[in-house]
Amino acid sequence: MSAHALHTEAQTRTQGGDALLDVQHLHKAFGGNHAVNDVSFNLQTGELLALIGPNGAGKSTTFNLVNGQLAPDNGSISLNGVSLLGLKPHELWRMGVSRTFQIAQTFSSLTVAENVQMALLSADGQSLSPWRRATHYRHADALQLLEQVQLDTHAHRPCSALAYGDVKRLELAMALANEPRLLLMDEPTAGMAPDERYALMALTRNLVNQRGVAVLFTEHSMDVVFEHADRVLVMARGALIAQGTPAQVQADPQVQAVYFGSGKTFGGSSTPAASPTTGDQP
Length: 282
Ligand code: ADP
Ligand code: MG
Fold this sequence. Notes:
By secondary structure, the protein is an alpha/beta fold. It is built from ten helices and ten strands.
């Protein structure tokens, strides 16, 4: 299916383009390497959209184009019809776009609650530095956010004492401090044990439902997405090769070639093949 056909189908689904996030014909090359090649998709409020594909497919590049870390060579990105091109990550944060990182970004010297309070300070436009402690700032709000990610019992422990899965949940609470309309998560389950991965995605799913936030997350393994994503985008070698419900993409021959080509299965936690082994690329 061509990118144009994908776009037309997506427009039909959103009844003429009422998407929260609309990405059209995105392109980014590094030298001669077309890391993201004519990628179009959209995302609606209350939707959990997964961007998957093997290593090197272009997921992180797409993600970093959307979050303002990278500038595209071509294409458009808009939020509620407002172009995001040229905006820096902190400007996007002000517009209600939050992100979490593959390697969690927290202040390890502060308590769990203080980390969320730092995020609240930032959301309120206050200057922040890790040396300025936020012990008294919106403490009750911080606890409420921690309750939403089931970390309230850890609120006054140092962040450095948390288990890895708990740090990822803290990062999620910090991202929510901004009351985002759009939450971007780059491989949120990287480095996690299977039960932790499941729990984090279930939690994210609940937050999407409760808050009506839209989530775009990247993921290299398919098993994480089947259970929780509303819709899945599949990239390979810079191109969007399929999109649809988890069941639709799982049944897609090109997706199967990418993920099953090397004999790997959907269920495993191993990294999928680096590239398709069959020749049916677009
Ligand atoms: P994924 O996240 O799906 O693993 P990436 O978006 O990181 O894929 O990478 C897509 C392609 O772009 C790869 O071939 C990668 O080597 C290349 N690439 C990514 N970032 C850079 C960069 N900063 N400079 C040069 N090449 C890059
Ligand atoms: Mg990546």
